[in-house]
Amino acid sequence: MSYLHCSDVLDIYVEPYIHSGFRLPNQPYSYYYRSLFSLHNETLSIWIHLVGTFIIVLQTFDHILSTSSPFVISYIIYNCIGACVMLLCSAQAHLFHSRNLNDHLRSFYIDYLGINFYGFISGIVHYRFSRVDSSYELFNEPFYYLFLSCLSLYSLSIACFSSGTIFVSKLPERFHPGTFDLIGQSHHTFHGFIFLMGFFQSGATYRDMLQMKNQITTRHLLKDITYACVTLTLEILIVYTCLKLSFTRLEKHYEKDLKKLNKHFNKNNENAINDKDEQNSIKKIE
After folding, report:
1. Higher-confidence position of 119 and 249
2. Nearest to 48 by CA among 21, 76, 88, 17
3. If residue 280 lies in a helix (H) or strand (E), which one and from where to where?
């Protein structure tokens, strides 16, 4: 496969300090599926989450085989679905986003949907298994839990600000633009940590489940499944609405750039056709 320089594609497809390895736009979907097995600037971003999905599924099977509680098994699968949806939505976004503006918007809106969905699912699971009920009235007071939650405030604040700083700093490609286009760019590292977050969070949640497996009932499970279905439905409606509203504005914004790039590609195609005709003519003369 041949790839493009950042100057040959719309800037909406370009990450800062990434100069090469961009796939051709407006190609059939089969072209982008085939690009899974070639090296370009999105290859690692895609495969980190595809392989990560497989690993989390294996982790889930291992947890299922390690317990006999039907409620723990149900919540393990519940949590696994949330994590896999997040990773697969991200993988498809990086696979198809550069096809055209419509696919770019749709792919990343689906990506954001996956992130929100996993956040909601993992939040419910964590809520259900966050603590064992205490028989001591002293430790059931709201003040006690408020105090415990505040103990981690500073460490959580440092973690949040650090993650944001790392994400926007674009290291290491900021210092060597073009060097880390295919391997080693900051977004690859970001994807790796997203997978690790899902993996370790699933493992920690499983250990919490084992402590509280006797306190969960069918009512809790059905209630949480209903929450998940309602949330997913609302997220799909919101994503669809945002996609419809934003595509027209985005298309108008890039109208001139699209015409310019189309002329550029048409000219290159004409030159390529002329070169082939000349080669055929030379062969006939010979």
Report:
1. 119
2. 88
3. helix 255-285
| Contact criterion met (CB below 8 Å) for 107 and 32 | no
Q: Report d(CA 196, CA 207) in Å as an integer.
A: 17
Q: Pick 62 or 2 by higher pLDDT.
A: 62
pLDDT tens-place string over residues 80-89: 999 999 999 9
d(CA 79, CA 64): 12
Between helix 186-212 and helix 101-128 the angle, nearest 10°, is 30
| DSSP per-residue codes, 135-192 | S-GGGGSHHHHHHHHHHTHHHHHHHHHHHHHHHHHTTTTTTSTTTTSSSS-HHHHHHH
19 marked as binding residue: no
Q: So where are the chain's domains?
A: 6-29+55-132+161-259
Biggest CA–CA distance in the chain, Å, is 99
Q: What are the percentages of helix, strand and coil residues in the chain, rounded to 5? A: 75, 0, 20
Query: What tokens does 138 get?
Result: 């002293």
Q: Are 41 and 185 in contact (CB under 8 A)?
A: yes
